[in-house]
């Protein structure tokens, strides 16, 4: 029933968890499976969009019809995303991006020699950079994974990062969020907070795309 409502759109989606190397065999990572981003990519293709999927490592098979751009680190994701945002009419950042990376990378496998402290440095905020290069009419949607005060933190991220909407994931809830096949989210815009109840990620993906398209319609004043 959504057939082709995204035709003519180029949707750039990020997915998966970026990895930051400590040494040739170890990395700092996170629990993102990529399922949410891949579900969005599949749903967007099905609705007629051209889809560019910039993906950190996952165990998933890319949906048929997407243009897959594999990356590993936050810096690679940043480069590949910024190289392509000009082409995108909609950007959806479902990836779980590392906020910190080791300041130094060992060239050889590190040995175990007593206590070890790691020095970390912040990564670039890709979402904020995409917003700062926004072109007219481009929609930019972030995700936010929160473990406490989800709506307050989500709202703060929405305003601070300047995205059109934030898809808020309360990842403290069991059975949804990271790695699950199901999710429940709050679609947050400056004007409203819409709760999408627990359902399959593929269905949540379609609901999110409907809300994203709704941003193109004039906002109702309440
Ligand atoms: O992959 P799954 O297993 O299916 O799980 C889905 C998910 C929980 C990973 C996903 O739905 C989700 O919530 N993704 C966002 C996770 C995250 O990194 O949230 P954040 O609150 O740390 O970041 C907020 C936003 O800024 C995100 O859109 C993120 O892509 C972006 N960001 C963050 C840091 C950074 N350096 N650059 C960014 O662009």
TrEMBL record:
<dbReference type="GO" id="GO:0015941">
    <property type="term" value="P:pantothenate catabolic process"/>
</dbReference>
<feature type="binding site">
    <location>
        <position position="143"/>
    </location>
    <ligand>
        <name>CTP</name>
    </ligand>
</feature>
<dbReference type="GO" id="GO:0010181">
    <property type="term" value="F:FMN binding"/>
</dbReference>
<keyword id="KW-0436">Ligase</keyword>
<comment type="pathway">
    <text>Cofactor biosynthesis; coenzyme A biosynthesis; CoA from (R)-pantothenate: step 2/5.</text>
</comment>
<feature type="binding site">
    <location>
        <position position="161"/>
    </location>
    <ligand>
        <name>CTP</name>
    </ligand>
</feature>
<keyword id="KW-0460">Magnesium</keyword>
<comment type="similarity">
    <text>In the C-terminal section; belongs to the PPC synthetase family.</text>
</comment>
<keyword id="KW-0285">Flavoprotein</keyword>
<dbReference type="GO" id="GO:0046872">
    <property type="term" value="F:metal ion binding"/>
</dbReference>
<feature type="binding site">
    <location>
        <position position="157"/>
    </location>
    <ligand>
        <name>CTP</name>
    </ligand>
</feature>
<keyword id="KW-0210">Decarboxylase</keyword>
<feature type="binding site">
    <location>
        <position position="109"/>
    </location>
    <ligand>
        <name>CTP</name>
    </ligand>
</feature>
<keyword id="KW-0456">Lyase</keyword>
<comment type="pathway">
    <text>Cofactor biosynthesis; coenzyme A biosynthesis; CoA from (R)-pantothenate: step 3/5.</text>
</comment>
<keyword id="KW-0479">Metal-binding</keyword>
<dbReference type="GO" id="GO:0015937">
    <property type="term" value="P:coenzyme A biosynthetic process"/>
</dbReference>
<dbReference type="GO" id="GO:0071513">
    <property type="term" value="C:phosphopantothenoylcysteine decarboxylase complex"/>
</dbReference>
<dbReference type="GO" id="GO:0004632">
    <property type="term" value="F:phosphopantothenate--cysteine ligase activity"/>
</dbReference>
<comment type="function">
    <text>Catalyzes two sequential steps in the biosynthesis of coenzyme A. In the first step cysteine is conjugated to 4'-phosphopantothenate to form 4-phosphopantothenoylcysteine. In the second step the latter compound is decarboxylated to form 4'-phosphopantotheine.</text>
</comment>
<comment type="function">
    <text>Catalyzes two steps in the biosynthesis of coenzyme A. In the first step cysteine is conjugated to 4'-phosphopantothenate to form 4-phosphopantothenoylcysteine, in the latter compound is decarboxylated to form 4'-phosphopantotheine.</text>
</comment>
<feature type="domain" description="DNA/pantothenate metabolism flavoprotein C-terminal">
    <location>
        <begin position="6"/>
        <end position="213"/>
    </location>
</feature>
<feature type="region of interest" description="Phosphopantothenate--cysteine ligase">
    <location>
        <begin position="11"/>
        <end position="222"/>
    </location>
</feature>
<keyword id="KW-0511">Multifunctional enzyme</keyword>
<feature type="binding site">
    <location>
        <position position="99"/>
    </location>
    <ligand>
        <name>CTP</name>
    </ligand>
</feature>
<dbReference type="GO" id="GO:0004633">
    <property type="term" value="F:phosphopantothenoylcysteine decarboxylase activity"/>
</dbReference>
<keyword id="KW-0288">FMN</keyword>
<comment type="similarity">
    <text>In the N-terminal section; belongs to the HFCD (homo-oligomeric flavin containing Cys decarboxylase) superfamily.</text>
</comment>
<protein>
    <recommendedName>
        <fullName>Coenzyme A biosynthesis bifunctional protein CoaBC</fullName>
        <ecNumber>4.1.1.36</ecNumber>
        <ecNumber>6.3.2.5</ecNumber>
    </recommendedName>
</protein>
